[in-house]
Design a protein that fits this description.
677 residues; alpha+beta; ADP-ribosylglycohydrolase fold; Jelly Rolls; 3 domains
Length: 677
Amino acid sequence: MTTFKEIYKRIYAAWLGKNIGIRLGAPIESWSGPEVRKCYQPITDYLTDYSQFAADDDANGPLFFADVMKYHSVDDVTAQDMANNLLNVVPYEKGFFWWGGKGISTEHTAWLNLINHIDAPLSGSSKQNSRAVSEQIGGQIFSDCWGYLALDKPEIAVSLAKKMSSVTHDLDGIEGGKFVAVCISLAWHIQDARELITTALKYLNQNSNYTKLIREMLDFYLQYPNEPEKCLAYIEDRHSYDNYEGLCHILPNTAIMLYGMLYGNNEFDRTMQLIAEAGRDTDCNLGNVGSILAMMVGLENIDEKWIKPMNDTLLCSSSIGSKNITTISKSAYHFATLACKLHGISYPSETIGKHTTDFSLPYATNGFKIETNRYHACNLRVQQNQLKVCLDDILPNQEFKIYKHCYYRPQDVYDCRYEPEFSAIIEPGDIIRCSLDNPESLPIDTAIYVKGYSGKIYHGEFTQDLNLEYQPNTNDIPYLEYGLLIQNQNRIQRNYFAVNTFEVIKQPSYVIDFSSLSVEDWGYDIGLKQHYGISGLRLNRGNATIQQNQFLLDAQSELNFSGPDVSVHHMSLLWIPQNNIHIHMCYQWNGCYDYKSIEVENQSVYLTINLNRNITRKLITCMNEEVKMLALNYDQQAVYINGQKFELNLTLVPSSVAILNETKTAIQLISCRIEGK
């Protein structure tokens, strides 16, 4: 494993497999095997047309937990480092996990421990939480990333998975995390599922119930290698949920994973069918095994029926709204760079503030779609490092678009149980560039455009140039989509042009009028609680409302927007003054417990840094009046308080921005100005 390109492609395949499994299993999650088979057998394709699949805990965990390795090596990273990262990326009892309550939901219980300074690994221990809680399924469903980052070094996969799993789990919960990560690592070279399982055993606690279950399943398979129905009946009898404590124990689900891997004939489709039809925690089981199998068999052995419906799009529900819109290929690229960093392998440098599409992998559309109707039939294909626009038949004087969502509303997303909320990834002031290839010299005019929240289209000049640039400045925010408008004067049949790259240079410059934003109804979360959001904002904690043209941020509430790859050089915040106010204007916000802010507490103003809940405050001034306005000017190295200038020593790194209300009552926000570079 020597080149970035090879690593990127293999991780991309595995991550696709993970998300295929999640999407396939989601509609039947928690169904019993007999219930699934009664309704759906045989399962040979997706059960639900999700259109745009929303956030899921199974994808959130691997994607965001891996971020800890940006700052650590394999040897120096600790369980508490991983716990600190978890606290930063997980919203406050919103989305990401199932927040089922202390002593019921494993992740919720561990999170409460961490919040109350019960550090890892005690936070996830059976001593602290009980065996029933600590051995639930989460230890393994979030562990795929450690297999990706370990590459073909299973000992590294074991080390990382053990540390992360111990933050929230214990005993067999940890063994499950190790097993999944090791299997993925071994799958770089081992091409047989039974050999993979047998080899993975060597890296587990030999006295654990998890290991005993693996041996039991291997023995059963050797005795009945051609009788999957007998094996499934055995599992449903001997390893039903009724035989284990808790709501979703790891072992019954592991038995199903092993069953699929052993009887699936090393075939992706067959393995996924067996596991889906077995029921129980289907999205988790299918996601883990999909990840393992895809790493083992490679992208070329996964049918495109599984890949194309996802359109290379991934939505998440982390604490940072602008990170919740990504793609499968981009996140695989992120995993690959982390893996190369850990192993000392060279990888492409990423330019901060610059977002460039990568069409080098099959099906990596980067989330772009094409508009079609009865007068223009066309398709998108990823070929030869390009997004190929195949024009089957375009009648004269038609206008159509190639587009990508840069923000999602509730009506754009299917199933919002895990409370996704987003910040737009394109903002006023950003520069959008596009490079085209028109080898057939088709008579087309193109322009870059954005769609405002009102639905109105804003675009640059139409041109036949192959290199386009547009800088939107309308305040019709958040922008919903961006892409290309295409006009043709003559009929075009059976021909094509191609997009080489889309590039976004982040330098936002705009003002948010909070009262002009919209309340968005996201429906019921996984706990059947009604969930509302505000357009363009990620309510990371608490709530906000808009009443009678007044934007009210509730007590003990937090919101964030913009970024995450923006250095904010100018930021200002205006609100209605009130007694006993306590508010933070976070000009650098990297997560719930990693931020720099200008903090106002009554009439005192501080420069505040929160790093992993270690808070330092430096007094800037005590005002003799109520504070109602803050402004930061990085170029001047100054902050303005009610218009009065105070010089500071400021440092910036690319991030989001946020507003925190620690007042005991709601506060009325008026406006916020952002200028970034």
